[in-house]
Design brief:
This protein has about 170 residues and is mostly helical. It has six helices and no strands. The longest helix has about 50 residues.
Amino acid sequence: MIKFFLLGVIVLAGALLGNAFVGEQQQRLAVLLRLHSGAKALRSALLDQQMDYEQALLYADSSGCSGLFAAYAQQMRRHPQDKSDAWAEAAVQSSGFSLGTAELAALKEWLGRLAAAAVGAQIAQDTAQFLARLQRITAEVRDVQVRRARAIRTLCIMGSLTLVIVLL
């Protein structure tokens, strides 16, 4: 009886281990969702509240972007001669905001366009394009994560079942 209980514990541990691995992969998706809400906040600050670019960045950072937009504003102040790509790279590194290459490229392009935008319609259009691109990236990441999660859970359960068979 105890042997079957211990074998059940092994299978359950394999399933829990699979869930732990899957939980770690959810972080990128959470970062993308925070970036999405920050982009909406930045658009609102620039268009609806008529803030200047630096104030809007600081306002957007308060929407849960973990210092990304604040670091970007700080880089703008410290190194005004640099281009927006350099500001974005430094901001991502200093904020600890982990982005994949696709979202980093989209972010650099969008922030560069916003820095050069002179008209509210251009800001709205650029932000809409960025949000659409970010939604596509998020959908791709979500799809990949679902497939990986299934594979990881299956492998963990199969591994624990193999261990049970060996122990029998």
